[in-house]
Specification:
Oligomer: single chain
Distance between the termini: 39 Å
Helix content: 25-40%
Largest sheet: 5 strands, mixed
Order of helices and strands: HEHHEHHEEEHEEHEEHEHHEEH
Shape: globular
Number of strands: 12
């Protein structure tokens, strides 16, 4: 069953196992990543229908296919290498409630293979538009409507961000950049360089990496906060090693957000600013990679750029 707590929020990464006989790795290697678009497995449609949705396959236009190809070409070297062997297919749906769904497929061989399904609407949005929408799912505007939360992230297509994020999950699950998660209550004594000193459990940051206010935010508690709390929320976030609120959901989301924002800002010279406005005036800005606690962690991302 899909977790409805997060189904209408931002990225909403889910890992599900789909009963689909995936191609063997050796045959996948002959297919360009940009040519792996196809209808999502029926089990994915069923999961959404069972939750009361009415998803339908999205037929890609020529322009949309070009956007996807461009987004694939932007992926870091390690992503390109891992996806070549492990990405079975990319799918797009209309009437899909969340932004993306990554599924582990049943594979007759030893290699893990995945499908990534995207909400087709992101093909018509910029990163700034999509990220602003996602961030605002964290807040209620019933009162204090003089506040705004805006993400300034340039004019690149939203699929660039979302594909990079989801592809990072695939790389992570193949290479275990974060420890493999089997039981969210288990304590992992042997963590990886990326998680050590930051996380206690897959969904539980160490106490000095979070604080009481951040623990009440959407991706930690499942509850929205009044928009007037936004300045305090991001001032609190600025004191942590996390690059976004969503990165605090789990250690796998932490990696995906960190790598995505790092790649866009440090490798592609794109902006990523969380801006709080009051009465139309900027009152606070958070840029993750100007935060020394975030910058300190970027050395753990070097492996993604080794050829």
């Amino acid at each position: 069953m899909i977790n409805k707590k997060f189904v209408y929020t931002g990225l909403c990464f889910f890992l599900v196992t789909i009963m689909l006989q995936a191609q063997r790795t050796e045959s996948l290697q002959t297919i360009l990543l940009s040519e792996r678009t196809q209808t999502a497995p029926e089990d994915i449609f069923k999961k959404f229908r069972d939750a009361g949705m009415k998803p339908v396959n999205h037929e890609l236009t020529k322009t949309e296919k070009e956007k996807i190809s461009k987004a694939i070409s932007i992926l870091p070297p390690l992503h390109q290498k891992v996806l070549k062997d492990h990405l079975h297919s990319i799918s797009f749906m209309d009437n899909m409630p969340n932004t993306a769904l990554t599924s582990l497929l049943v594979n007759p061989g030893p290699a893990k293979t995945f499908n990534i399904t995207f909400r087709a609407g992101i093909l018509n949005e910029t990163i700034s538009e999509w990220a602003t929408w996602k961030e605002n799912t964290c807040y209620s505007k019933a009162e204090n409507n003089n506040y705004q939360v805006v993400i300034e992230a340039g004019e690149m297509d939203a699929i660039v961000y979302v594909l990079l994020h989801e592809a990072t999950h695939v790389v992570d699950m193949v290479l275990n950049t974060t420890p493999p998660t089997y039981d969210t209550e288990q304590v992992w004594p042997d963590q990886t360089p990326f998680t050590v000193g930051i996380w206690h459990k897959p969904t539980e940051p160490l106490g000095d990496a979070t604080n009481s206010l951040l623990e009440t935010t959407l991706f930690r508690s499942g509850e929205v906060l009044p928009i007037s709390s936004a300045p305090d929320v991001y001032k609190a976030l600025q004191e942590t090693p996390f690059c976004s609120l969503y990165s605090m959901a789990t250690w796998s989301e932490d990696l995906a957000e960190m790598l995505t924002i790092y790649h866009l800002t440090q490798k592609m010279n794109q902006p990523f600013k969380i801006i709080i406005k009051q009465d139309g005036m900027d009152i606070f800005t958070y840029e993750p990679f100007t935060n020394p606690k975030v910058v300190k962690r970027q050395n753990n991302l070097a492996v993604f750029y080794e050829s």
